[in-house]
C-alpha cells in the first residue's frame, strides 16, 4: 500500500459510474419496453439477459418451503439471530406522531405514516446476498409498510438461491418475483400484469439497476445511488497491524474501485500494515479484485498526531470507519462524518455487515457529510397538522395577510381577510 503524508485536502470521492451513453440508452429502452409490453417484455428480457425461460415470475410457497432443505441448521440459526438483532436496532428508531396545543386554541402536529408499498431489489448472478434482504426489509417492516415486494434475477435454471428464499421466508416476505436488472426496476415503478407498482425502490444492483433507479426516480422514491464500498481505519501505535490489514482487505475484495485507507500517527504501524496487506493478499481468493482496489484506491496516511488524524477522517467522510486506538470511545465525539463507526479491536466491519443490528446500507463517496444509513424514517412520510382557532386567526390574521401581499399574492391575503371581516 502507498504510505504518504497528508496533503492539505484528502478525499475518497471517486467519479460515480453514471454509465456510458449506450448503457443509458439501453436502460431507457428497457424501461419503455416494460411500460408498453408488461409481462411479455419481462419474459423476453429475462430470457435475453438471464437465460431463464419463465412463464410465471412469482416464487411459489412450495419453492420457499423446499429451500429449507438446502441450508444447514447452523446457518439457519445464524440468520434468525441476525434478524432479531437487526429488528431490535431498528425498533429503537421508530418515531411517533405528535400534537401540541397552545392557549389560543391553535393545534399543530406531525402525522407519521408508513409507505403503502416498497420494492426491494436483491442482486443475483454468481453470489447470493441474504444480508441485503434483511437490511432492506426489516426497517420497512418496523416502519409499518404493509406490502413489501422482493425482486431478484433467477439463474438459467429459473431458480433463486436457497439462502435468498429462506431469508425472505424467515422475514415473512411472500411476494417474491424472479426478475432482475433494469426490467425489474421498471416493473416495480410502473407495474405489469403480474407485478403491481410500488411507492419506493431500495436495494443495490449493477450499473443497469442503478441507472434504472435513477431514471424512475420521481415516479417512485429510491433509497440512494451508492458508489463503491469504502473503509477508513483510524489507528495509533497500539493497534494490531494484522487486524487492520484484514479489515482493509475485507472492503477491497468487494470491487476494484473499493477504497481501503489507514489513517495513523505511527510510521511504524504504517510500515507493518503495508507488509501485512501484501502477506494476506497472497492467499485471498479474490486477490485480483482486492489487489486492484489497494493499488488504485488504497492509501496509508501518516499524520503528526491524532488531532490531525481525526481531521483527515472527517475530510474523508467514509462509509465505514473503524477506530482502533488505545481509548477509542474518547474519540467518537470528535467524528463528524461517517456512515457507520466501529469502535475497538473486536468490532470488525463485517460485524456490522451481517449481525450486530445497525443497517449496512450506508452513504458512500463522501456523502456521509450530509446523509445517513438506511433507516426506519426512509420508509415513512410525514404530514403536518395545522388547526387554527377563531381566536388565533383574529390575533395573527393581519400578519398573514401582510406577508401574502409582500409576495404579491392578493388572493392569499383575501382568503384571510374575508374571515377577519366576518368576525
Describe the structure concisely.
The chain has 423 residues and is an alpha/beta fold. The chain contains 15 helices and 14 strands.
Shape: globular
Mean pLDDT over the full residue set: 95
The CATH superfamily name of the largest domain is: Nitrogenase molybdenum iron protein domain
This entry's quaternary arrangement is single chain
- Label the structural class: alpha/beta
Unreliable stretches (pLDDT < 50, length at least 5) are none
Total number of domains: 3
Helix content: 40-55%
CATH topology of the largest domain: Rossmann fold
From the coordinates shown, what is the CATH architecture of the largest domain?
A: 3-Layer(aba) Sandwich
What strand line-up does the widest sheet have? 1-11-10-9-12-13
Radius of gyration: 26 Å
CATH secondary-structure class of the largest domain = Alpha Beta
The separation of the N and C termini measures 77 Å
Largest sheet: 6 strands, parallel
Say how many strands there are: 14
Strand portion, in percent?
A: 15-25%
The helix/strand series, from N terminus to C terminus, equals: EHHHHEEEHEHEHEHEEHEHHEHEEHEHH
Keywords: Amino-acid biosynthesis, Coiled coil, Histidine biosynthesis, Metal-binding, NAD, Oxidoreductase, Zinc
Family: Belongs to the histidinol dehydrogenase family.
GO cellular component, one term: cytosol
Protein name: Histidinol dehydrogenase
Amino acid at each position: 500500500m502507498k504510505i504518504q503524508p497528508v496533503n492539505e485536502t484528502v478525499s475518497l470521492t471517486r467519479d460515480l459510474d453514471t454509465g456510458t451513453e449506450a448503457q443509458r440508452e439501453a436502460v431507457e429502452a428497457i424501461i419503455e419496453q416494460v411500460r408498453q409490453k408488461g409481462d411479455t417484455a419481462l419474459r423476453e428480457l429475462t430470457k435475453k439477459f438471464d437465460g431463464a425461460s419463465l412463464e410465471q415470475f412469482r416464487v411459489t410457497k412450495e419453492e420457499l418451503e423446499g429451500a429449507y432443505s438446502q441450508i444447514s441448521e447452523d446457518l439457519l440459526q445464524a440468520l434468525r439471530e441476525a434478524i432479531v438483532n437487526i429488528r431490535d436496532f431498528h425498533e429503537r428508531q421508530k418515531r411517533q406522531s405528535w400534537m401540541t396545543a397552545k392557549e389560543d386554541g391553535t393545534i399543530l402536529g406531525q402525522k407519521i405514516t408508513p409507505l403503502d408499498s416498497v420494492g426491494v431489489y436483491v442482486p443475483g448472478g454468481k453470489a447470493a446476498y441474504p444480508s441485503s434482504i434483511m437490511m432492506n426489509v426489516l426497517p420497512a417492516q418496523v416502519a409499518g409498510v404493509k406490502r413489501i415486494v422482493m425482486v431478484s434475477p433467477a439463474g438459467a435454471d429459473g431458480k433463486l438461491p436457497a439462502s435468498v428464499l429462506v431469508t425472505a421466508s424467515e422475514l415473512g416476505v411472500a411476494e417474491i418475483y424472479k426478475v432482475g436488472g433494469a426490467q425489474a426496476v421498471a416493473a416495480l415503478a410502473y407495474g405489469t400484469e403480474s407485478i403491481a407498482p410500488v411507492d419506493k425502490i431500495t436495494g443495490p444492483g449493477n450499473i443497469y439497476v442503478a441507472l434504472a433507479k435513477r431514471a424512475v426516480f420521481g415516479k417512485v422514491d429510491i433509497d440512494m445511488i451508492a458508489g463503491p464500498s469504502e473503509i477508513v481505519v483510524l489507528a495509533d501505535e497500539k493497534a494490531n497491524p494484522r487486524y487492520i490489514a484484514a479489515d482493509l482487505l475485507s472492503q477491497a475484495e468487494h470491487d476494484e474501485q473499493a477504497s481501503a485507507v489507514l489513517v495513523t500517527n505511527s510510521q511504524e504501524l504504517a510500515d507493518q500494515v503495508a507488509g501485512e496487506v501484501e502477506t494476506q493478499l497472497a492467499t485471498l481468493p479474490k486477490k485480483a479484485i482486492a489487489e486492484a482496489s489497494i493499488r488504485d484506491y488504497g492509501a496509508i496516511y501518516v499524520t503528526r498526531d491524532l488531532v490531525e488524524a481525526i481531521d483527515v477522517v472527517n475530510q474523508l467522510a467514509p462509509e465505514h470507519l473503524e477506530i482502533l486506538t488505545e481509548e477509542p470511545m474518547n474519540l467518537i465525539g470528535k467524528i463528524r462524518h461517517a456512515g457507520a463507526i466501529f469502535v475497538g479491536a473486536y468490532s470488525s466491519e463485517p460485524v456490522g455487515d451481517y449481525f450486530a443490528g445497525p443497517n449496512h446500507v450506508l452513504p458512500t463517496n463522501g456523502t456521509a457529510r450530509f446523509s445517513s444509513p438506511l433507516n426506519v424514517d426512509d420508509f415513512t412520510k410525514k404530514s403536518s397538522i395545522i388547526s387554527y382557532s377563531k381566536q388565533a386567526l383574529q390575533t395573527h390574521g393581519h400578519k398573514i395577510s401582510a406577508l401574502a401581499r409582500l409576495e404579491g399574492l392578493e388572493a392569499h391575503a383575501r382568503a384571510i381577510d374575508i374571515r377577519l371581516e366576518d368576525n
